[in-house]
Amino acid sequence: MKPDEPNSNMDSSNDILNQILKSRNLSQQDLQTNLNMLPDEALFANIDKVEHRIRAALYENEPMVIFGHDDPDGITSTYILYNFLNSCGYQKHRYYIPNRNLEPHGIQAGFIDFVREGNYKLIVTVDNGIASLEGVKQLNALGCDVIITDHHIVQPEVLPPAYAIMNPQLPQCDYPFKQLAGVGVVLMLIRYLGNKWEHPIEPASYFWTAVGSVADKVPMIGMNRILVRYALEHFYEIQDDTVEFLLRNYNRINTLSDINSFLQYTAHLLANGRDVKGRHTALRFILQLSDAKADLFQELENQKNKWDSDLNRVFNFLDTLAADFVGNWFVYYDDEDIIPYPLLGTAATYILNKLNIPTLLLKSHNGDTVCEGRCSEGFNIMDAFTHCKKYLKQFGGHPKAAGFTMQQENYDTFLDCFNNFLLKHFHPSHTASTKYDAVVAAKDINRENWQKLEILLPWGQLNPEPTLLIRNTSKAEIMNYVALDNSGREIPNQGKGDILALWKAANMIKVLSWQQTD
Ligand SMILES: [Mn+2]
User: Fold this and answer.
1) Is residue 515 scored above 90 in pLDDT?
2) Fewer beta carbons under 10 A from the terminal one: N or C of the chain?
3) What tens digit of pLDDT does each residue of 92-148 get?
4) What contacts 24+ positions apart, CB below 8 Å, involve 507-515?
5) Which pLDDT value is given to residue 487?
């Protein structure tokens, strides 16, 4: 290490924290969070109309359905609304969680049948619905009022004809923070209802909001950070049967990082449990109070273990694809059916992490071609899909993660369109990043220093784990102090070099790049 390095003599943890703060243009003050900092929910467009309609349903004891979504954001969204209505003494509400392996996203025939048979007249969607133009029309034809709560991107020209829409992304919505998860939007709704009805919401709602927000990988800044941070700092005040149940089967929790890991664990568990006819094992597990809770937990655990082993197999396969890959973007059609459909998005994220270039993974599913796309800063994959939408049946998502369904015969024309868009709008040089947050010595990567960084938690988009530059070190030296994440770059066993790495956990770094120095 050169003698003029700022940290050559003293590598105190404060130095690491200060380097990170400086590189991110933050002060310690900026990291303070408090629920009082949340904006007034009344700023949400249409929230008053939503409150009136749900209140009317409660007074009339009118049957209603919460229409959710089968990912952890959708499950937690459904749960906190369902539970809030329970706590108000209401008993006429049901839920319906569609299964993405059986039907495409949004309101489809299976749910329409459920509503018709149950003669429901009020539907509240959570974490979805904003793209269900046809579905809402069909529900309207059954005489239903449909309230949409969602956080996905709004296409103003095809807004569904709903009774009311609550989505921070609506052009006319004054709620200042646009990046809430689906469950964040529902939390703002029940906070508003709780206020109006003088019926406080349960503190555990913040825990479930944190689980859904972390799982949905929303940017960990602003309101999202305030909400998750609240769940981390008030973890021991939560009174929740499910949390208590899960903790009985979980490692000891000592630090904020441990609580953060517990949030991730809970999210992974809830990613399982897809079922038929609107049922969902994860949601049943949360709602169940009796002994059956343990059985449902076991079912979710088994599915999670199978998922983990499938995932390993798929990652090994993707490693071989990525190893020899040369190009500015990555498109792969899984015609040998190696990647199970439910893992397509996870697989696309894995390739993105390996290669850091826009990635499309496609496969055939239920007679159509489905696709999951991922990209990092410097490109907007939703813009690309919007540009090529005439070839797509249905598409949706976020600027960095989106998916579509298309007729198989459109593949070639779509790909031409997508490639043309990329050539114009994607500049590969912008994505090669050598930015780092701190220069450290190998010996400073330790538990004590890590814990001083917990003030930055939770990690996520726009608030990632720190990137470290470790100068002139060797694999042997670095491994004296910390383990290396498997999914990172390989370091040669011999020789010294500069390492750029993500500090993922107290005892784990993920190598991003390696530059030989001798
Ligand atoms: Mn979501």
Assistant:
1) no
2) C
3) 999 999 998 888 889 999 999 999 999 999 999 999 999 999 999 999 999 999 999
4) 507/447, 507/482, 507/483, 508/482, 508/483, 508/484, 509/445, 509/468, 509/478, 509/482, 509/483, 509/484, 509/485, 510/484, 510/485, 511/484, 511/485, 512/467, 512/488, 513/434, 513/489, 514/489, 514/490
5) 75
User: How many angstroms is it from 182 CA to the middle of ligand 1?
Assistant: 5
Section 476-496 average pLDDT: 88
pLDDT of residue 249: 85
Residue-wise pLDDT tens digits, 354-398: 888 899 999 999 899 999 999 987 899 999 999 999 999 999 988
| Cα Rg of the chain (Å, integer) | 24
- Nearest residue to 179 via CA among 222, 212, 122, 136: 222
Q: Determine the Cα–Cα distance for residues 186 and 193; give it in Å rounded to an integer.
A: 10
238-247 mean pLDDT:
94
In 298-447, DSSP assigns E strands to 330-333, 359-365, 368-374, 394-397, 401-406, 438-440
User: Which pTM was predicted?
Assistant: 0.85
Residue type, position 349, single letter = T
- The pLDDT value recorded for residue 314 is 96
Over residues 310-333, the mean pLDDT reads 91
- CA angle (251 as vertex; 245, 255 as ends), nearest 5: 105
CB atoms within 10 A of CB 272: 22
Q: Are 338 and 317 in contact (CB under 8 A)?
A: yes
The CA-CA-CA angle for residues 297, 301, 302, to 5°, reads 120
| Cis preceding-peptide flag for 156 (omega within 30 of 0) | no
Give 185 Cα–ligand 1 centroid separation in angstroms.
Answer: 10
Contact 180, 224 (CB under 8 A): yes
Question: How far, in Å, from the CA of 126 to the mean position of ligand 1?
Answer: 9
For residue 56, pLDDT over 60 is answered with yes
Distance CA 4, CA 1 (A): 9
Q: What is the pLDDT of residue 429?
A: 57
**Does 9 have pLDDT greater than 50?**
no
How close is the Cα of 216 to the center of ligand 1, in Å? 6
In order of their start, the domains of the chain are 13-24+437-516 (no CATH), 35-287 (3.90.1640.30), 308-430 (3.10.310.30)
CA of 504 to the centre of ligand 1 (A): 24
Nearest Cα residue to 342 out of 361, 326, 359, 367: 361
User: Which residues have C-beta within 8 Å of that of residue 506, sequence separation ≥ 6?
Assistant: 257, 446, 447, 450, 451
Count CA within 13 A, CB hemisphere, residue 33. 23
* d(C-alpha 54, C-alpha 163), whole Å: 11
The rounded distance, in Å, linking the Cα atoms of 60 and 209 is 29
Give the distance (Å) from ligand 1 centre to CA of residue 180.
9
Structure tokens belonging to residue 337: 């059916």
Q: Are 256 and 454 in contact (CB under 8 A)?
A: yes
